[in-house]
């Protein structure tokens, strides 16, 4: 066997090396200097992210179990950037809270293992690899959600996540077994040739879709979202809403557009309905939220509904717009969560009413938050507008004007609750506003990158063209 | 750098400089210089346009076309015709006047002027866009700063008004988005490529079914900001709560985006849909015209009076556009301009009166002519212009509209026209009522005897707005020539 072909798994191998290095570091660094683990981990992951951009060959390994192409490679880089920003934003939290409890390294090992699972999941060439990746990406996150052991609510959220995730992946596995029963294969390439729209296949697809729908938190598989986000540490809530969701959307898209393409007339209708209820439920429930984490949880459910508008097309335009939207969504949501985290870390306050008068005391944080919310709401000239407009264009290209209409109604509803936060920060005055504070360099850097990303990604059209070029490799 | 892109770049530079200003003095001087440069550029553009028009007979001149998103055929494509030149001139004047009127904006001055100028970038970009996508982007950029402008610097129930205004306008633009996508995906009906370019789409015969479906979406999407009944309810609340300069800009300029968008996009690109649907919107706009004027009679708050008067006047613009002939269209554009200057002037005067007397309730005001004669006299002049007295811009506009409307011969149109002409009388009632109660009569409050004198910057802002009102009224021909020759491509679509 030619070992050089293992280089196709470069992302996975380097990340594994980073994890092992961190294990060594855990053993060899004395307790007094444990905070250097944070710097080390961010540094190593930074290098990993940069190396990811170097050119690489594409192909498949292990008889087709593992595959890469340009788009998959690009998407792993996108996930890396997201995780890097997230690490920067949570650096202060780790140093101040977690290192004291001697648990810094576990955080990184668990987080990176979960990311490794996502790599395998989106690179999967058969359902076995897919399922292994899915499990590996979920289980460590449950441990991370319960990471603040001193808080009861955090343990609660860990239990909630692991129970619902176990159920979801069980259902998904059941669906996969039905697909195997009807097609006689677990390899994607063979399934796409053998699959027909029999009742058993459709049932299998629906169960399988439910499992992924759980990860994307589509309605009606969304019940865990708000509770878990509220209890989990903010960086983990952020991870779940951005990285985990992004990876699940991506693999769902690959499967729908290639393997399950023959069932398109079936899943079109399913996605149509799910998109509508996801947008409405997410948005309507977000209206009344007071806790910022719950607020962002429902907002991220609604955003998932918008993503389905791109998935429903089943063509290259859909692929491009979905990847583009997810990229923008990562930056926007990370910015919002970053601000929430910065404030929560310094003051412990997480409610919308605590944000009143924030602009007068912390103008820069408020401006980043405003950018993030405008981007989530889809207001030009920030990136979110372009992401949403192109998603809607993709849906309209298939003639789904009614769906687009319902989506724009939802954009207006969502604008209301995003404006509520802006109202608290800019319009209101408060006697006990959050006092001025300075964040440390990691947090500043993390927020700066997201802010620049939000401003630039939309206006810089070559990026879109680049993704469009890459998305040819899916078909 | 081409002459039109400067209209975007200069305000952006102004904003960047504003970021580094430290206090009110610096902020207002920077904004004034920026807006004054814009005004000079706009005046220069008018002359350059006449010169260019003499040798160039394409629909749009000074065009510039840069590919933006290649996959969707989205371009940064700009150009102007007579209509957009006139509206650009209006915008620069109102913005500069607004800066003068906000000379004493002590509360967060930097943020105020930045938001104001961001809004103006949206308006400039909207008027020069040929590409539907770019146009839509600028449309939303123009709307969203209103939330902060009303919410932070407003008065009264400002949070409510700001939220209502923003949601209604953004909701409308969301509907508009569906309409634009509909137009886009039908732009290949003749076998060409999909395009957002307005001039190219106008050459395409979009199927009648599609026109019928997407015309109302596009029309309503734009007309909400032009205060189409029954979607006008954001306007009185928004105007009443907004600070003076924002009311000026909003009523004077922002509401013009509605009429312009309806004309340039909905009616130009979907002419068959316009003919098919016109009766519905004629009924709505006539209701708006009459209802707005009648509501104005019953209001006691000066800003509400003016806001309802705007609903009435802009209803007339939509009504005239739907009359589908050149005379009425010319009147509609002139009415847009004339209303822009007049209503900005009104709001400036109301702001000055309110700043001195601390009330906008006409019942509490009286005899102002004796104590603040400058403001009062200008108020009377603006009022007379508003009710369409010959010699002012309002007369020229309304004359054209009604002459154009009477060219429609069937009974329905006749009835609609007669109903909307009745508004001239009603306008006279509410204008003269305010003048009588507020300016004439005894001085109701002794404190009014010691009112502050009019300052130089206020005079400056007022005169800036007054000159074009009289100018258009006395010598309307150069303007209507400029507009009329730009109307030809629009009428061709209907034949």
UniProtKB/TrEMBL annotation, chain A:
Assembly and interaction partners: NDH-1 is composed of 14 different subunits. Subunits NuoA, H, J, K, L, M, N constitute the membrane sector of the complex.
Domain NADH:quinone oxidoreductase/Mrp antiporter transmembrane: residue ranges: 124-413
Organism per entry: Seonamhaeicola maritimus
Record GO biological process: ATP synthesis coupled electron transport
EC number(s) reported in the record: 7.1.1.-
Compartment(s) where it occurs, according to its Swiss-Prot or TrEMBL record: Cell membrane; Endomembrane system; Membrane
GO cellular component, one term: endomembrane system
Gene name in the database record: nuoN
UniProt cross-references to Pfam families, sorted A to Z: Proton_antipo_M
HAMAP family (UniProt xref): NDH1_NuoN_1
Organism superkingdom: Bacteria
Keyword Repeat set for record: no
GO molecular function: NADH dehydrogenase (quinone) (non-electrogenic) activity; NADH dehydrogenase (ubiquinone) activity; quinone binding
Membrane topology annotation: Multi-pass membrane protein
InterPro entries, sorted: NADH-Q_OxRdtase_suN/2, ND/Mrp_TM
Protein name: NADH-quinone oxidoreductase subunit N
Reaction catalyzed: a quinone + NADH + 5 H(+)(in) = a quinol + NAD(+) + 4 H(+)(out)
Keywords recorded for this protein, A-Z: Cell membrane, Membrane, NAD, Quinone, Translocase, Transmembrane, Transmembrane helix, Transport
From TrEMBL, chain B:
Molecular function in Gene Ontology: NADH dehydrogenase (ubiquinone) activity; NADH dehydrogenase activity; ubiquinone binding
Membrane disposition: Multi-pass membrane protein
GO terms under biological process: ATP synthesis coupled electron transport; electron transport coupled proton transport
Cellular compartments annotated: Endomembrane system; Membrane
Keywords tagged on the record: Membrane, Transmembrane, Transmembrane helix
Domain of life: Bacteria
A GO-annotated cellular component: membrane
Name of one Pfam family that matches: Proton_antipo_M
InterPro entries for this protein: NADH_Q_OxRdtase_chainM/4, NADH_UbQ_OxRdtase, ND/Mrp_TM
Domain NADH:quinone oxidoreductase/Mrp antiporter transmembrane: from-to ranges: 130-418
Transmembrane regions: 6-22, 29-50, 78-100, 112-130, 136-153, 165-185, 213-232, 253-271, 277-297, 304-324, 336-355, 367-392, 412-439, 460-479
Similarity remark: Belongs to the complex I subunit 4 family.
Name the record gives this protein: NADH-quinone oxidoreductase subunit M
Organism: Seonamhaeicola maritimus
